[in-house]
């Protein structure tokens, strides 16, 4: 009977070895790579967006796809930065309080969303991210987000901040993993699969949906605080729709409702954003074909990205993790069996 | 200064503004209703429609109001392409893939438009009626706004006739209710999907042309109208055409009055975009399925 109780931990999971290996690699990178740009702008950003995308993914896991997560990224960022600068709290306290503040607002938004389904919820969260910009602009004398202001990081840039971020990311992902695999996570999954049935089995759906909202917005706020610190600057542009769609893109690219999906997605998308602009100079020879455009690089590059996105959805509808899973399964099954299937199956 | 004639002007602007969104929202709603698909790249079709109308008016010298037809036709073809080569490929997979493929389409449309844009600034379709206006008190309302309202009403009547009185409209409604049963009744569901997408895209093309006549636009203009059209649909209730009309009018007027009032009081201009969402959240907290919605998805 003991095995029937649902208490899987990371220790029992096969993913533990992968996780330790991954963290070890990430921790070792600064010893090999000496570029401040790569570590400060690319790798740190990957870590921060891994938290952010995982927080979104957790909410989506409970069947609530937010389209306004940038609001919480921004609230966390502004709250932590303002607490440090105006009140003089130590940055690490500001970071945690920023997350808690974001979770508090998340609780209120979650209350408005509890009865809403799919697209209705998406629209309310998106609307909230638009409204928050109006509030920030209206009371700019307090927030100062129109022009923006510099932030104070928890650790000096680049290497110490990188390790601090790595530590926070590992802890955050572990907590999110634990939540997803706990009784709460089971309730979230039940709600996302069929809310009515979940209710009938005695799950207090409203309570669990709110819980998912609070946990998710806490980590989104935490990521926002870190993001503001990594760029050493914060501005109202953090609330842009782009930042709301980013965790969604990352989660879908990496694989929805998995723990590794958002992390992989963050690595892929941040890499694309950081390294794709380098291709601009190779696209310049095509300039004369489009006389109306002064710099032909960005539109051509983004066009390519769009086509890539469409193709990845068509050919890999379950994200990149499905590809990894397929590869893993292929390695595990013995080749004779695979050949048999190939013979009997198509082609 | 807030005056009654100024308020009347804001009201008419709001209705015209709302009409453009109603057209876009109805197209989106039609696609959603029949195909259960959310096309987040719908606003980009508006942008493409406006651009096509701009090209045929400035280069071929066509009257912009006749260009609506050209724009509708071409955008319908683009819509068919979108459905055939993108959305039909992922039918039956995760719903979030639709958002994702739409994002890819947004990148494609915006950047193709950027590559072929006539210059790097916002453009506006030149209307021959631009200098004509009806005076109301100490303000005036352009003929373009009034004509836009009339055109939208005409198109909506046409759409209602199409869905209620024709055989293909019947097939569309059947597919919308239950696609499996429609298939059993001998309806070629895939063809209905293509047709629906074409009609929805044509509506976006028409609304794009009107948008381009009333406002200036650039390749990235599409994102906000999509979200607004979507908010209108949610406000009115998913799949309901009267809901979309009521939502659109409410939305356009609220937006326009806020813009007018914010110039009179010390309110930031950004509330113009936020007001509609405040309205939306207020409605959804009271009625979780929207004004006219029966049940959620």
From the structure above, extract its key features.
heterodimer, A: 347 residues, mainly alpha, 1% strand, disordered C terminus, B: 297 residues, 72% helix
Describe this entry's structure for a reader.
The complex is a heterodimer of chains A (347) and B (297). Chain A is an all-alpha fold. Chain A has a domain of 239 residues. Chain A is 73% helix and 1% strand. Chain A contains 16 helices and two strands. The N terminus and C terminus of chain A are likely disordered. Chain B is mostly helical and 297 residues long. Chain B has a domain of 207 residues. Chain B has a two-stranded antiparallel ribbon. In chain B, helix 1 packs antiparallel against helix 10, helix 5 crosses helix 6 and helix 5 packs antiparallel against helix 8. Chain B is globular, with a radius of gyration of 19 Å. The mean pLDDT of chain B is 84. Chains A and B meet through helix 5, helix 11 and helix 14 of A and helix 4, helix 9 and helix 11 of B.
Number of helices of chain B: 11
Q: Work out the strand percent of chain B.
A: under 5%
Percent of residues in beta strands of chain A:
under 5%
Give the terminus-to-terminus CA distance of chain B: 45 Å
- Most extensive contact: A-B, 47 and 52 residues
- Structural classification of chain B: mainly alpha
Strand order of the largest sheet of chain A: 1-2
Elements of chain B, N to C (H/E): HHHHEEHHHHHHH
Please identify the oligomeric state: heterodimer
**Total helical elements of chain A:** 16
CA-atom Rg of chain A in angstroms: 22 Å
Counting DSSP E segments of at least 2 residues, the number of strands of chain A comes to 2
Cα radius of gyration of chain B in angstroms: 19 Å
The H-and-E topology of chain A, N to C, reads as: HHHHHHEHHHHEHHHHHH
- Strand order in space, largest sheet of chain B: 1-2
Mean pLDDT level of chain B: 84
Low-confidence stretches of chain B: none
Give the helix/strand class of chain A.
Answer: mainly alpha
Q: Let me know the largest β-sheet of chain A.
A: 2 strands, antiparallel
